[in-house]
Amino acid sequence: MVNQRWGYWLFFAALFLAPFYLTEFRLSLLGKFLCLAIVAVGISLIWGYTGILSLGHGVYFGLGAYCMAMYLKLEASRGHLPDFMEWSGVRELPWFWKPFSYPMVAIAAAIALPTLLAALLSYFTFKNRIKGVYFSLLSQAVVVVLVTLFIGKQEWTGGTNGLTNFSTVFGFSLSSPLTQIVLYWLTTICLALIFVAARRLTSGRLGKVLIAIRDAENRVRFLGFNPTVYKVFVYSLSAAFAGVAGALFVLQVGLISPEMMGIIPSIEMVLWVAVGGRHSLMGAIVGAIVMNTAKSFLSENYPDLWLLLLGALFVVVVLFVPKGLAGIYESLVAVRIKAKRGHEREARVDVS
Amino acid sequence: MKPKFMRKLWLLFCISVFALGGCAASSAVDQAKNENKKDSSSASKEGDTVKVGILHSLSGTMAISEVSLRDAELMAIEQINASGGLLGKKIEPVVEDGASDWPTFAEKAKKLLQKDRVATIFGGWTSASRKAMLPVVEQNNGLLWYPVQYEGMESSPNIFYTGATTNQQIVPAVSWLLKNRGKTFFLLGSDYVFPRTANKIIKAQLKDEGGQVIGEEYTPLGHTDYSTIISKIKQVKPAVVFNTLNGDSNVAFFKQLKDAGITPKDVTVMSVSIAEEEIRGIGPDVLAGHLAVWNYFQTTDTPENKAFVQKYKQKYGQDRVTDDPIEAAYTAVHLWAEAVKKAGSFDVDQVKKAAAGLEYKAPEGTVKIDGETQHLWKTVRIGEIQADGQFKELWNSGQPVKPDPYLKSYPWAKGLSE
């Protein structure tokens, strides 16, 4: 497995050096995809390892993004009311907007709010032993509620248009190429850190408990563990990842709207992980990058056909590679190891 | 285990070959276009072509509306090319799909400006898509022509708005309704920015001009059950329902309204999002007798319009119709071309300068670019829907109305924009 570690180093080094070999436009796309890959790591943790299928991660992503966007919007408004509030008849900045003029508060909230919401939701559902499809449905309901709220409260959230048109972050212009590169590096570092943390987590005792919960929750309970605590923890953790991803996403894309936290994006997130291989953290990252690259590439080259092609890709993966890209990789490795062992055996025979 | 896996891999390979082959064949035309693109990409503006971006939703919920805008823009480009091009260069459209997804609009706008280095972009329909593109065109000092009526309160130095703003559609319609139909209004809209903002304006205006709002309802986009809202309408009996519903919801609303026995004689429904194209989808039989307010109808009587409608039908089929956004998209391309000719350059700043005050004989009549707001002076028209799916014009403003996106010239709107 030394090989594999080298592979990871190589992967992240390649990402880190991307500003030197990609054009500005492609780099901004890759930066966006890496944010989405962070979400994918979280989903792989809860779905692949713990068996919780959440169809509502768009909400945590969106909350993180909105927290960051509120700060950016206030900075862009330079002491005035944000433009959408002015024409919605709001005279004074609502109280809950005020703390967001401090960037540190915004960043903390971008992580804390999704985590809190996830902890609250998961504590009450998992404590009452609601799981499987029922939990998935519940997570969808949360999406619908939150999206409706954000659209309806146009004077506070910008409605369907969302928050957009930012200018600076910490006083640096968002449109300057240098800021974009720094943000890209920041995203890469966040992704690497989150990946390492998630790996540490899953390779230790906790990871074993999570897998045990996935495979036989009742047995885990009889063994004296309390699955609720573990499930709430891992679910909140994945929400925190999504929050970080959302904040980084807004910085690079410059836009967040309720549509991006809706049901379709939430399901898309699960699809990336399915394509990449849900039982593998690296698979989830690669899945998110590959699927989004495919989406960009196909829609650029076949504006009329790309949806069909993307759909075909999904169908093919689900039908023929149920374990995703990671599954293919593992099978190849298995084949090689077998072959190697075969050689070794033959060699031994020769010697004797 | 191993042979099975290999078989699967083989199958996967076959399918991907098929898929690729299939798309290569069926999009041969596209590819030909792409190759053209690639050939001239290095030459961009220096060669004998100039690239322009067309960025509409060709997939997703908005495709049904936006595809015809792309068609109209391509037709205008073809016309200009047929008559010798611009400054001796042929216009080469680069079509991108915004996919009814706002970050995609931002992404593709960035691609068009940074990678294809287009001289201008024509695109967008929803306000959300425009808001997504706005920072991109401003940061890259690009140019965007946005062809749909919208809720106003915006004026970007890098966007030209060729659809109506509120004082060229909603405000005159409310005044007309107060004079001709009655004082009691029921406001019904889809739950997004345009209806909510429009209704805020309508409420302020009614307060000032002596009308009364006796109901206000919002339904989610795509909502199809209007029975409770219709029974409310029956109960409060408004003179006018001001309808800002969008898309499919209109089909359900008007069908259920008719089924409930409410005719245009009982309650006038004034719509701001139903044009000829939407009438085709909803069915003229349930809409006949209701009103809509626009700047252009297919029946608008100008020589330019006769030629425009004829060309459009000839190119895309006799069953196709033209409508206000289609006309505005078509006009946008010609306005840009005129501005380029006047400036003698494709440079954004020079084109913008040349565009100020530019007049053009559009199918809707003469329009003029207002240099200050970069909106158009447009004639307002109120029409009654006929059984054949066309409009009969009941009223028009007589002359083009000066655009006022922030409603600064209306004292009652003070609280809205400050």
TrEMBL record, chain A:
Q: Tell me which UniProt keywords the record has, alphabetically.
A: Cell membrane, Membrane, Transmembrane, Transmembrane helix
Pfam families on file: BPD_transp_2 (PF02653)
Grouped into one coarse class, the protein's main location is membrane
What InterPro entries does the record point to? ABC_transp_permease (IPR001851), ABC_transptr_urea_perm_UrtC (IPR017778), LivM-like (IPR043428)
Q: How does it sit in the membrane?
A: Multi-pass membrane protein
User: Where is this protein localized, as stated in its record?
Assistant: Cell membrane
Spans traversing the lipid bilayer? 6-22, 29-49, 100-126, 133-152, 181-198, 232-257, 269-293, 305-322
Source taxon at top rank:
Bacteria
The record's annotation in NCBIfam families points to: urea_trans_UrtC
Protein name per Swiss-Prot or TrEMBL: Urea ABC transporter permease subunit UrtC
Task: Give the source species.
Answer: Geobacillus icigianus
UniProtKB/TrEMBL annotation, chain B:
Signal as UniProt keyword? yes
Give the range the annotation lists for the signal sequence: 1-24
Q: Does Signal appear among the keywords?
A: yes
* Keyword terms, alphabetized: Signal
**InterPro entries (alphabetical):** ABC_urea-bd_UrtA, Peripla_BP_I
The family database entries (CDD domains) matched by this protein are listed as: PBP1_FmdD-like
Q: Which SUPFAM superfamilies match?
A: Periplasmic binding protein-like I
Annotated Pfam families: Peripla_BP_5 (PF13433)
UniProt protein name = Aliphatic amidase expression-regulating protein
Q: Which organism is it from?
A: Geobacillus icigianus
